[in-house]
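Below sits the subject:

***
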Amino acid sequence: MKGEKEVRKRTIAIIAVIILLGVAAAGIGTAQRAPKFQKVRTAMAAKGNIESYLSTSGIIKSKQSKTYFAAPQMTVTKIYVKEGDAVSAGDQLLSYDMADIRNSVEQAKLQYENAVLQLDELKSQKKKIDDAIKELDRDIKTLESSNNPQDIQKLAQLKQQRQSLQPISSERIKLAENTAALAKLGYDSSKTRYDKLKTGIIADISGTVTYIGVEEGSTANPSQPAVAVQNLRDLKVVLSLGKYDSQKVKQGQKAIIKNVEAEYEGKVSFVSPSASRGTAAMAGMQQEAVLTAEVDIFNPDDRLKVDFDVNVDILLGSAENVLMVPVECIKYDKTGKTFVYVVEDSKAKQVEVELGIQSDTHVQVLNGLKENDKVIQNPGISINDGTFVVEEGALK
């Protein structure tokens, strides 16, 4: 009896183990068949306003500036301004020592007057000689038909006088005329230079003196600037745009100019019709070609300094009340097509979308989505079409 009881106990234990193993196996199979959910963050496709900007930088320049160079071989006697002075158009900036050039004008004038006098004297002599020859030729012709011994004697005298008279050639007259003309050119040139330099350098724009490169009593280098005047109330930003950015910027676009302290409104006023390429300092290598553009600053103040760099945001486009999603929702395939993942029935659904303008944070969706669609943000490589997903915070 005791042996039978032991066998019965062992049998019951084995059956219990088998049952437990079966239950565990069934649980594992159920768990393996259950879908795995990926936690995701989503954003709603919603309507709003969007603005697309190109962010770049440029150099502040004056829209009105003039650099003046001193005249060659002229000594500066007086400088009437200093750096930082405000000047108006017509103000004298500096004056020259005019003694030498004044003497040159007087010499040229005397040379011209002498040449004119010599020409007049030569013409007068020519007229006298020509008149005398005509009179002698007339008298000789009259006496040649006479047989009177006295007339014959007088005829011989007249012929002798006629041979002694040499007319002044037209070439001599022309030479004297040319000499007078050259003297006149020299005089006019000297006087024009005197008239141009006698007032020194005159400002032809209103603004502020930003540079002085000469000293009183010195002979200025004509290849170096003497004075620079800039209008510091009429400013622009000069941009250098690369090949891709240049295709986006158009004349008339609004802009925001930013420096450390403030922001200013502006507008693209000029886009160069052609690019330019500089030369690098090393090995004569050419730099990348750039296109020059200018942005007018509407409300400049003293905080903006010429030749400092500033940041510029150019408004490329804007749209109101359009459907848009955050930029981190957008994915690209190998062909360049754009798509998003929409959450439908706890699954990620891949949807191809057509995009419009883009801001730093959002992008316009022209086709593919409707308002209030839930779109996955920053979908990683674990998200594919049909992946089970759950929004963060929905599962614990």
Observations:
- The longest strand covers residues 309-326.
- The helical segments are 2-33, 99-143, 149-164, 170-197.
